Amino acid sequence: MTNKLNFLNPFSKKYKKVLAFDGGGVRAIMGIYFLRKLEEESSKSIFESFDLFIGTSAGATNALMLGMNGSKIKDLEKFWTVDNLKKIMNQSFIDKTSIFQTRPKYSNEGKKEILHNFFENKKIGQSLKPVVVTAYDLEARKPILLSSYGDPEVTAVQAANASSAAPIYFPTASMEDGRWLIDGGIATNNPSLLGYIEAKKIFSTNNIKVLGIGAGLNKRKISGKNSRNWGALGWLRHDILGIMLESSLQNEILKDLIGDDYLRVNSPIGNVNRRMDDMSEKNLHRIKELADDWWLKFGKKSINFINS
Questions:
Q1: pTM (predicted TM-score)
Q2: Which helix (H) or strand (E) holds 199?
């Protein structure tokens, strides 16, 4: 179990640093490519450079890999291989042959198997550094945080599975305490502000820096005039989930709160498929290209962030 008292010395260094990961399915791989470059160029491991890790959905797995296992970025890349993605997104026979999707697109079984390969039976209270993931309690109708210091008995597999239980894509996650949880992106896909608030609580300092790693923004124009006549299927076809996930309000609030102590790495997705489950070779190549663009734009700033 993580000992909270170990984190309460505000004088151990000038700033406490938070690394926050957005959700975004396979698009979350962009952040891994970017951080690998940052780890190489700064000559510091990402795990050693940050004091708290927080993530939503696919980003929750990245946060847990770092906080629980102290992983190098190359270890995170091993999670996001094409073979693992195929197991995680194993479509049922019913959905392959049905005109309309009446059940979740994917089962939980492949996802849980891959998560168990990396986390085994570890509980999040065993984390090496504080780690937080977001989720949404369906029956209580409220967003929640699962943290190493607040929910030490929850397993890493349970936490990652719940945070990534995206409606339409995966089934609702059943927790051992009776709660039914879905993807944390329903409430906030960018957990940077939440990470800042949690860091203030557990480190007892206002000297907090936050690096927020996005998963790309879909800026394709949506016709307001045409939307007047859309029903449920129309809105789903025009990415209503993406609209919900890409709200920038909390991003703007954190920027107003701490200014240059918040560095946001994100951009429009360009040619990357907006769909969160496109693991085609073509799309994965485009994801890598966008991550390279991010490095050109944010690389120097991120190195300064690490060294400050």
A1: 0.88
A2: helix 192-203
